[in-house]
Every structure is written in structure tokens, then in C-alpha cells.
Amino acid sequence: MSRIGRLPVPVPKGVKVRLEDGVFVAQGPKGEHTERIHPEMQVEIGETEVRVVRPSEAKRHKALHGLSRTLIANSIKGVSEGFVQKLEIRGVGYKAELKGKSLVLALGYSHPIDFPVPTGIDIQVETPTMIAVRGISKQRVGQVAADIRNFRPPEPYKGKGIRYEGETVRQKAGKTAGK
């Protein structure tokens, strides 16, 4: 049995879940999130928990079992608590600011970068060098954070650029270190 797939997903108070034509729908205080579940997986919805049951012990079904359970758990967590990905900017003169519905980044290029905030995502600039990306979909939050990081990924010599909070960048020695 899959270690992840066999665990029940608890449904917190204030969250309503249902299954409609192979689509799992979770509604909570943060909003509504839908997730398509593979048709071979069976979802059992109880009063306080959701369980995923696989039809056989085939390798494919074992993989789908854990995946389906994790997608359901992420939907429930997203509508109840939400997801946050924080980015930190390092470098002299590098900064971020919100202007209307877009994030404006100054990252050492000859022009500022204008990043429009996607719908369903909330971006907050806590300080000029800290950005928080929030939303109910773990996949979308991670993708938007990765897109922002891609404008100037951290470089290995001075460590300048945009990095995830807590990410460590291995520093390389410069040219003079070899002599």
C-alpha cells in the first residue's frame, strides 16, 4: 500500500468537498479550487475525511494513488489556509514594488521589468527586497514564483539575484583563487 495514498485527508471545519464527474471540488474561506482526479482512482468522501482507493496493486495505480491523494490534500489546504512562497532579492540597487496590478522589478538591467500579476494570485512586497506570492493553488503559486525568480536567478560568484527564502547558493571562487 502506498504510504502517502493510504493516509486519510482530514477536512477542516468550514471546508466543503464534493466530487462531480471526476472533478474534486473544495470550497473554503479562501475560495473554491477544482482538481481533476484520474478516472481509475476512487474517492470516498466522509464527514471529516477524504480517502483515495486504488483498484489494483499495479505499479501505475500505486503511482496514481499517492498523486491523487496529494492533489486532494493540496486543494483542501489551499482553500482553508492558502499557500505562500517568499522570494528575496539580493544585489545593490535591486528592488521590487507594486504599481497597480503589476510588479515592477529593478534588477540591474537597463530597464525595469513589468510583471503583470495573474488572476487568483496575490503578490505583496513586504520590503523592497522581499516578495510574497500567495494563492490557493500550490502549482500556480510555485509557477509564478519561479517565473519571477527567472528574471534574475542567483549567480554563483557574488550571489546577486532573486532567490527563494532560505535557499542557499554555493559560492564559487573567482579567477584569482587558482593561483
Note down, in words, how this protein is organized.
There is one protein chain. Helix content is 20%, strand content 37%. The chain has two domains: 9-80, Outer Surface Protein A, domain 3, CATH 3.90.930.12; 83-164, Ribosomal protein L6 (Outer Surface Protein A, domain 3, Alpha-Beta Complex). The protein has helices at residues 59-80, 138-150, and strands at 9-10, 16-20, 23-28, 31-36, 42-45, 49-53, 83-90, 95-99, 102-106, 113-116, 121-127, 130-135, 161-164. By secondary structure, the chain is α+β, with helices and mostly antiparallel strands. Strand 8 and strand 9 (102-106) form a beta hairpin. The strands form four sheets. It has a four-stranded antiparallel sheet with strand order 11-12-7-13, with helices on one face. A three-stranded antiparallel sheet has the order 1-6-5. The termini are far apart.
